[in-house]
Write a structure and sequence with these properties.
about 325 residues, alpha/beta, Rossmann fold, five-stranded parallel β-sheet, about 45% helix, elongated
Length: about 325
């Protein structure tokens, strides 16, 4: 009996030490994470907690590399910030929009869809882990995270859990004094040019398979949130190297949903200006800087024709 009490006493002490260590290290990681003002982490924090740009670009890496903020700002007469993020999709976009709209109301959001945004291959929630540092400060995104399962709420009770996959990045970015060379208001230019035609990056299943219900619902929620916030939204599928004459499942359904809600939808996947033009692309999915500048000017003209220049002040 006595030995049992001693054992449980030691167990409680060990558990207490672990809890205190978790809280202490977690707070330390929190402190150093939010000191970062450059790189992807710095840009995310700026978008979530600071920017008040009336015009925002939201989306994946294709958003980050295809929309030139300076051209958008000059053409539409509004300060613009590009909040695109590599390796992300609609769940990330929904979480970002929830946090942004909770803090302020942009006048206009440009949402870039990839040609396969609704594909099952895009439905992983693991990519959302980059937003874990904001989980407790921004409870509005918790329902998005909680789709990962009931264990999510338990895991996030740990302060350290929200940073455990980012520790090396936090250390590097705090030691580094790197400047985001060439990045202006979130736009990240790609300077390389394709030397030869690439390989089609998407499979037939991704292009023409059944849309994932959870991703479609996330898209619908984005549309609803922006409407309720009186924020004007335009949905854009930016240029691709291989023309998509047979509309993908994503493009067909997204356009149908947007048409029903009277939301402008712009599809540039069959633009002869860009299709097959190696000089405008840096790889099989992304425009280079020359291509991005050309595309952004075309988009601005099309947006102005839809009244966006008068809407954005």
């Amino acid at each position: 009996m006595k030995n049992g009490k001693i054992f449980f006493g030691k167990l409680l002490i060990a558990a207490g030490i672990l809890v205190l260590a978790d809280i202490g290290i977690g707070r330390l990681m929190h402190h150093f994470y939010f000191r970062i003002t450059h790189g992807e982490q710095g840009r995310m924090t700026y978008v979530i907690d600071s920017t008040r740009a009336p015009l925002l670009v939201i989306g994946s890496s294709r958003a980050a590399h295809h929309y030139v903020s300076a051209i958008l700002a000059d053409s539409l007469h509004a300060a613009c910030y590009n909040a695109g993020k590599d390796w992300q999709g609609l769940f990330y976009n929904l979480a970002m929009i929830k946090m942004i709209l909770h803090r302020y109301k942009p006048q206009t959001i440009l949402l870039d869809l990839t040609p396969i945004s609704f594909a099952a291959s895009e439905a992983s929630l693991d990519k959302l882990d980059v937003l874990l540092p904001y989980y407790h400060q921004h409870p509005e995104i918790q329902p998005v995270f909680d789709k990962k399962g009931p264990a999510q709420r338990i895991l996030t009770l740990s302060s350290l859990y929200c940073y455990n996959s980012l520790i090396l990045q936090i250390i590097f970015n705090n030691r580094s004094r790197q400047i985001d060379e060439g990045i202006v208001n979130g736009y990240i230019p790609k300077m390389d040019t394709l030397n030869h035609p690439p390989i089609q990056p998407y499979s037939d299943e991704e292009l023409f398979g059944k849309p994932d219900t959870a991703l479609v619902n996330a898209f619908r929620e984005i549309l609803t949130l922006t409407r309720l916030s009186n924020c004007r939204l335009a949905v854009v599928v930016s240029p691709v190297y291989f023309p998509l004459y047979h509309c993908t499942s994503t493009i067909q359904l997204a356009k149908k949903i947007c048409d029903t809600r009277q939301i402008p939808f712009f599809d540039y996947t069959c633009s002869a200006i860009f299709n097959g033009k190696t000089g405008f692309f840096t790889d099989e999915q992304h425009l280079n800087n020359a291509g991005a500048e050309r595309f952004t000017r075309i988009l601005c003209s099309d947006l102005a024709a839809k009244g966006f220049r008068e809407t954005v002040k």
